[in-house]
Amino acid sequence: MSSPPATPRSTLGSTPSTQGRRRGQSSSPPRAPHRSPSSLGPEKREYLNTTAEAKRKTHGPQKSLDELRQQMIDLHYANNRNYFDNITYEIYNISQQDETSARYTKREIGININSQFINGRFYRLENPLKHFSILEPANGCNNGIVLTRQSAEQQKCIIATNAGFFNTKTGDCLGNVISNGKIVQKPGIHNANFGITKDNKFVIGYINISEIDNFDQLIGGVIWLVRNGLSYVNISETLEDMTTQETGSTFVTVRAGRVALGHDAAGRIMMLVMDGASAYSKGPNLHEMAQLMIELGAINAINLDGGGSSTAIENGSLVNYVSDSCPGSDIESSISRCERRVTTITCIYDVTEQNDRETNEKTLTVVFGTITSSFNQPKFCATPAWNPFGITFANRTTVGGYPFVLFINMNNTIYTVNREMKQILMWINNSINPNQITPDNFTDSYSIFVTNNGDIYYDNGNENGRVDKWISNTNTLVNVMNVDSSCDGLFIDINNNLYCSMSDDNIILKTWSNDSEMISTTAAGTGIPGSASDELDGPLGIFVDLNFDLYVADHRNDRIQLFKHGELNGTTIFGEGSSNNSISLNYPSGIVLDADKNLFIVDQFNHRIIRSGFNDIRCIIGCSGEGSQSYQLSNPRTLSFDSYGNIFITDTGNSRIQKFDFLSNSCDNSSMVESAYSSVLTENHSTYSRTGCDLSNYYYEVIQMNVNESLYYTLHSNSSIDTYGYVYTDKFYPPDPSINLILEDSDRFSKGQFGIRTFLQSTTVNILILTTVYPNVTGTFSIFASGLNDVTFERLINPDKCVIGNPCKNQAKGIGITLDDILRFEINRNVTLKNQPLLVKISVALTIIMFLLGLINSILSFLTFQNENLRKFGCGIYLLASSITSLLTISMFTINFWFILITQMNSSFHRGGCKSIESLLKLFLYFDTWLNACVAIERAINVYQGINFNKEKSKRLARWIIFILPFCITATIIHEPLHSDVFEYPVKENYYDTKIIEVHRWCVINYSRVVQDYNTAVLFIHLIGPFIANLFSALFIIFGTARQRSLAQTNQNYITHIRAQFREHKQLVISPAILLILSMPRLIISLLPGCVKVSDKPWLYLFAYFISFTPSILVFIVFVVPSELYLKTLKESLRNWQRRICH
What we know:
Shape: elongated
Region (Disordered): 1-46
Largest sheet: 8 strands, mixed
NHL repeats: 632-663
Distance between the termini: 101 Å
Organism: Adineta steineri
Protein name: G-protein coupled receptors family 1 profile domain-containing protein
Subcellular location: Membrane
């Protein structure tokens, strides 16, 4: 909830007088006898400074308001408080909650001061408009003193405390008093005042007596404790001239019972009563009282009458320990205490107790000096947001690899641990370079906690079995806790209890941090991994609130557990097993609470940060999945706030600390502007697979959102169809929707409409994808954007872009199609070959046939071209090499097919096969096709040169080419295994389920845009290069030679020469022609524009793929069979082998 804005300071008399809130009057009780100062206890005597000189002093400073104001200005300047306005009072809006029954919170308070424990009672009234009064005694303010309890009963107060000061001799009220609009007295004394105006404002400070008529409630105190959230005791002590007042010069520093009245940032009244003198303690001084009020949330507060007057009444009963001894008893020895009679009281009335999230009657035990949390718990508005684009605060160079530890104190000093260098790092006062601390025997720490005095508690359990404390003042180390394993989470509560979360032991232990015996007790867990209410499984991050309730990131149970104070059975408040499971957790590792107890969860293996507030659970950072971009995280471990509400995260997988700025304008809803866009999804729109790696078609529209200023905006849809919204930055790639994704939503505003609160940047392209929850749905829709400025919408016609090797591989470039792409959605998982689809069975048969034919082809070709006479030409050497490479190619083709089939059927997988098989297959295939192209080129040259053809030169050139060609091919495709990896796709029964049925795994190639363009060029070179070589060689052999001869032999025309050339060299023409025809299907598919959705025509793509490998099994048919010379050589080789076998 955002704080109500302070009312501009103007004169308090701007509002006309209205009838005040009145309380009914009961019959007057008998007038109580006066008590002389001598009858008071020694504490009260000290409290009032009972010297004769003090008794002659007056109540209130002896100066005018103008004099006080000028002195205040001087004090502000001297004390560096220039940020306070030079006005003598503060005005603040009252909470506008206006229920007929009041709501309040009450707590017991305990503070430890110098080993003395002091109790108190704290009350916070949520709706003070109709339920709070300053009341005088029934007989009037100057007609006697009565017990607070009596006034409370007569006025029907449910909660009451003593209020203003009074003359202990006469019983008359001192200071200003207005009760329910009635001016009881207005002496114009310039002590601190607390009032409520008739136009429902709090006014605290020093007021002008001429403005007092505008108050409905007003009470004067002594010392302005808190001003604008800061202690004002020192300044107020000087302004109110304590040396001249009846209360005396030691009033501020003396320890006594105390009563404070103030308000918080939400406009709620706060009342605090602290016990006074007893056999065990003497109460707080006013400096400590101010600090305590600040810690409880006070914005402004004053000190009321205290000492023996300090009284708290609940439902007619005295509930605090009063200081005055009963008549005739000794205060130092007797436990008998009696309530003092007073004049005015504060009163909460007509109350129906309704507990809010904070439980009434909770004991709040505090150790003074550490009551201020050493870490930041910001108070956010109802609609907080953070810039999704983070800033790298520290990278691997500074923090080392895989940082776990992070802590930020109230002064914004940032602590972490460089585990590699075994150092604690801390950035002080926004320093660029951190200070380094290297404790002795510091090995590997997984957590730290820093107290207000700068002492650092750190885990040292992995090797040394303990938690150590580095004492900042002395630079020394002490052991504070013995453990059996690492403390993956450390926390110190406000009572100095040290908690250690041990993931390996599935338990959380605690000990008092100052306990020399280091006795540990169990805070949560049994030591046995489990998911029962009293069990934990790998607990990591922990957090303890002011009520000592323990929050645990139960890592391996995918949940957040809450253990109430003193209980060992926890409640699952978020994650697996909770009723609040709209967003599932995946190994949560950290948990932090803000000032309003909203949970901030580090969802480690979902690589994001979740905020769980009241009726609002959402991802706030890293909502697009794992990555290293500025808007992405990778295995985050811990989270911490600075005092401005910015979030710092240990981005462990990326070895960095990221900072995400809190956007203060996200709370400004005062001047929202709404922009609108309407359109229609039709069947002419493009489709893509929205829900993952499946074949569903979802129509979508791409909308660019332009803004003039980078701010937060709320987007929501309105349509008759169920819509889904995605926000991207820069570009949108339909084949891989995870690229550049920032946020997504489908049902935030119910009724199937999305609602997204996102940060739109003016310097980059903001893309909104409007699609549908269900496939193949069309219809009209509207989009509304709300923010401080206009948003202009522009529809983009998204180009049909594809990436080679996208994760799901349901769309691809034609040139990038692999057998894996074709068969992925055809092979049924966990099904035997007998029950596979017909396409798969035919593929198996064709693969076996092609391997057998390829084996026969290679043997016969090898027997032919191993002949020494044929190897006198370069052509024979090429073909001998081709007989070997063709066998390697068809063998790798077969291995690749069975690798894909078996891994898809049985879910087994091998990363080495993923990276190597496809690349080796391409190496041998390209080698074989280029060898065939070399044969065609040499034949064309041979025909062209005729008798001038140099056999020796061609033979040397062939050997060099065969040696160099594999290295050249490898160099062009080496990027493929380097970019190949295994992709895992979890399968669920439906998209919204959290339970994963099985995980599909397959090979993917993830290219950057530059590498992808390079890869496309390489593929075309290896495909078109041999094609062109074969085509032009065949054409030249026939047409080029025929033209040469027609010019030399003019007695025959050109057509006759063409026929003669074909008859003479037909064996030379048939070979490249066949290779040309076989490469045509693959070439046509490769030249198809845009994306190819393989699943639409799997038969077509499968046969084109198989045909592209047939040249490797046709070397014998293409080159040997058409040639009489080669056939004759083969027959001779067979006869030679037969003779060798027989002999």
